[in-house]
């Protein structure tokens, strides 16, 4: 399914480029589908250190920034002088993507085009996925162009909601899309902080 997301994403927004490079590990499957449909070869221009944990669930901004630098290493021989399509599965705060784009440009990439295999995350998940408050979600408070500028990419595109649904439910199944639409089929308390405190108490 993740590969199909990349195929649809390429049909919607493939740029002129020399190499497709996944942001590992979250972008690998979508990048392979993107490369397949766009005809742009896929190469691993970033290598992940698997001993460093996921960044967006770490509580302190300073720790997240440190982790990005330590966990990903750019491969200059793949990136230098190239127009690079970076593929990832989401943008949450934007700070991690910004660091990665900066890193890829510092490794010599001529252009960096960021492609995201889901629609913009506009609203938190109240159903179990650990996402930050709405005020920390960059897509909740900024336009596409503002996000592109913050991240420092030459172009930025997300998969459309229609494209996502065409990839995941060819059988006509029904799937949640609340964090992309802000429409929640199951009600939750409107006070987000109170809700999160309640959720923590339930977990304890
Ligand atoms: S699609 Fe639904 S369940 Fe999945 S992360 Fe978004 S809000 Fe949560």
Report on the structure:
The protein is of the alpha/beta class and 204 residues long. The chain has a single domain, classed as Rossmann fold. Helices cover 42% and strands 13% of the residues. It contains ten helices and six strands. Strands 1-4-5-6 form a four-stranded parallel sheet, sandwiched between helices. Strands 2-3 form a two-stranded antiparallel ribbon. β4 (83-88), α5 (95-106) and β5 (111-116) form a beta-alpha-beta unit. The longest helix has 12 residues, at 2-13. The radius of gyration is 17 Å and the shape is globular. The model has no long low-confidence stretch (mean pLDDT 88). It binds iron/sulfur cluster (SF4). The site of iron/sulfur cluster has 7 residues, from α9.
Defining traits:
single chain, 204 residues, alpha/beta, Rossmann fold, four-stranded parallel sheet, globular, binds iron/sulfur cluster
Q: What characterizes the major β-sheet?
A: 4 strands, parallel
CATH class categorisation: Alpha Beta
Ions, cofactors and other bound molecules: iron/sulfur cluster
Taken as a percent bin, the fraction of beta residues is 5-15%
**Averaged pLDDT, please?**
88
**Portion in helices:** 40-55%
Number of helices: 10
Low-confidence stretches: none
User: How many beta-strand segments?
Assistant: 6
Q: Looking across the biggest beta sheet, what order are the strands in? A: 1-4-5-6
CA-based shape: globular
Give the structural class: alpha/beta
CATH architecture: 3-Layer(aba) Sandwich
Using only C-alpha atoms, the radius of gyration works out to 17 Å
């Amino acid at each position: 399914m993740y590969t199909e997301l990349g195929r649809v994403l390429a049909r919607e927004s493939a740029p002129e480029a020399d190499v497709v490079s996944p942001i590992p590990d979250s972008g690998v499957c979508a990048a392979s589908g993107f490369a397949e449909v766009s005809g742009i070869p896929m190469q691993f221009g970033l290598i992940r250190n698997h001993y460093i944990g996921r960044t967006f669930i770490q509580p302190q901004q300073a720790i997240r920034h440190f982790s990005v630098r330590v966990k990903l290493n750019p491969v200059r021989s793949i990136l230098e002088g190239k127009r690079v399509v970076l593929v990832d599965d989401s943008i949450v705060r934007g700070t991690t993507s910004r660091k990665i784009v900066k890193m890829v440009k510092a490794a010599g990439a001529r252009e960096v085009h960021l492609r995201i295999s889901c629609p913009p995350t506009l609203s938190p998940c109240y159903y179990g996925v650990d996402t930050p408050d709405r005020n920390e979600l960059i897509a909740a408070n900024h336009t596409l162009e503002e996000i592109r500028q913050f991240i420092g990419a030459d172009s930025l595109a997300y998969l459309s909601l229609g494209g996502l649904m065409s990839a995941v439910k060819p059988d006509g199944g029904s799937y949640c899309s609340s964090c992309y639409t802000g429409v929640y089929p199951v009600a939750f308390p409107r006070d987000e902080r109170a809700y999160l405190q309640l959720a923590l108490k339930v977990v304890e």
